[in-house]
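Quick sanity check, Hexosyltransferase:
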Amino acid sequence: MPSSPKLFHARPSSYIRRSTALILCLLIGLSGLAFGLLAISRHGLGYDCKVGKPLSVSVRWDKTGGGSPDEGLKRHKVMGFVGIQTGFGSAGRRAALRRTWFPSSHEGLHRLERSTGLVFRFVIGQTSDPSKMSELKKEVAKFDDFLLLDIEEEYSKLPYKTLAFFKAAYALYDSDFYVKADDDIYLRPDRLSLLLAKDRSHSQTYLGCMKKGPVFTDPKLKWYEPLSHMLGKEYFLHAYGPIYALSADVVSSLVALKNNSFRMFSNEDVTIGSWMLAMNVTHEDNRKLCAAECTQSSIAVWDIPKCSGLCNPVEEDAGASQ
Ligand SMILES: *[C@@H]1O[C@H](CO)[C@@H](O)[C@H](O)[C@H]1NC(C)=O
Ligand SMILES: *[C@@H]1O[C@H](CO)[C@@H](O)[C@H](O)[C@H]1NC(C)=O
């Protein structure tokens, strides 16, 4: 209230002037109080409204085109959308995450979003098993922290889910970065936020812990590559799968492409890497995204390269948070 100091300094020479000043003061004070109460009630209402609104969102795809989710969705502006890819067998991992770095309540998710500019959701598809679906429904009702994709979870080993995730996240959020992460890593959201907020000269960024590596031609091996005849002995540079980020410009190009128009290798990280190889992106390598243990600067911690995540995610997540 800029007028208060003037009234405070009103000369006491005239009684009338003084009482006018007092009445004015009282009026201003009262209106201030009323304004304050109004603001509090408004804020309170808006707040309740936000907290009450479901956070989980289900994405239905247009079956004919396989294109985009429902038209008319309002995209929320954020700095980063972090999709934690999870599955029907991973309730224990999600519980471990919610006990450690992943907020376990609406209020916590909102607070983390406000402090980091990052939205975190578990990303899961569907299954034909009704009992598993009803378990998931209960978990969605309880924690409300999911992005539900309209695809069969059986494809989760293949890169289809990742592409569906990027399309859904892009449709729902106007984000600077889209982060794909697995549910078996330990993450520091505050440090991830600082990394994504960094100034970059290129708008097309592929950010992750970069590697090359042998192409496996033996079908008995876990990382066997049936399309190895198209590759050399070593893969092109690509980010490890447990966590990587694509900038908005990159994701918008992926979203624009028709389903089935991209080559899918058997490994998800390699597949994304092959698309990035074709695109004019900057490969930004950051070893803090694949730290073997918690340090002053580690962003994501997992058992590189022993497991493609933490080897014992449920126990180790609890250990890392200590
Ligand atoms: C895209 O194509 C794959 C392979 O044909 C299919 O399994 C998947 O369900 C399709 N996805 C969408 C969103 O239509
Ligand atoms: C690739 O991107 C850079 C930086 O944005 C730009 O200067 C360059 O012209 C692009 N190259 C091609 C082939 O489009």
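Posting the structure with no commentary besides this: DSSP finds ten helices and ten strands in the chain.
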